[in-house]
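note to self: dont lose this again. the chain is below, predicted strucutre after it. 244 aa total, dont forget to put it in the shared folder this time
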Amino acid sequence: MSVLLSTEQLELAYGQVSVCRDISLRIDTGEIVALIGANGAGKSTTLRAIAGVLTPRRGSISFCGRDITAMASHERTNLGIALVPEGRHVFPFLTVRENLELGGFKNRRDTAKIRRMIDEIFEMFPRLSERSGQNAGTLSGGEQQMLVLGRAMMSEPRLLCLDEPSLGLAPIVVQDIFRTIRAINAAGTSVLLVEQNARYALETASRGYVLQTGSVIVGGTCADLKQDSRVREAYLGRIAPAIA
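---
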């Protein structure tokens, strides 16, 4: 596999407060990679830096062999990086279809392509098709999560960064969301997954990294991480059955 994205010795801060130190990781083409760790470990901050929302204090970010450390977030979107932030963040007073159209902004001049892409999203999420003319703010939490995933896919990402996709959702909805994530990956999109539910993350991804107080403390295949005593004690306890 070729390296799609890598970070080297990232230091990330909000103002004068350092949040992450020495974050080095990689995502290969076609992979799902998980970032796990406790609240405040720096997982979401790392995603924000990769997406260009936060500028690193030091270190570098490379995408497809190109240094993008100083690149603006919209330029990264055009290159193929999409971020689905924690908390869903739909445009509540726009319809489902209008939310999706905004996700396809870079193809806005090709209306036929936008229609085809929206049809593909509706095939992926039939519930959204049923609610295409409904304001996004009236959708359930699970439906909003489907919408933000679909909206991100409208930008044709090579790397999809997901921040806590299971947050606040019923277990049966979470299973549907993770099946969709695996399907998106199987269709060719690499995924960087931040997920508080370590069991789901390690069952879904092929490799992972564990963050603790702003640093990577261990990385490896998910099979190895599930056997690591630090991961088992802190995040897994008894190993749960594989997700559907």
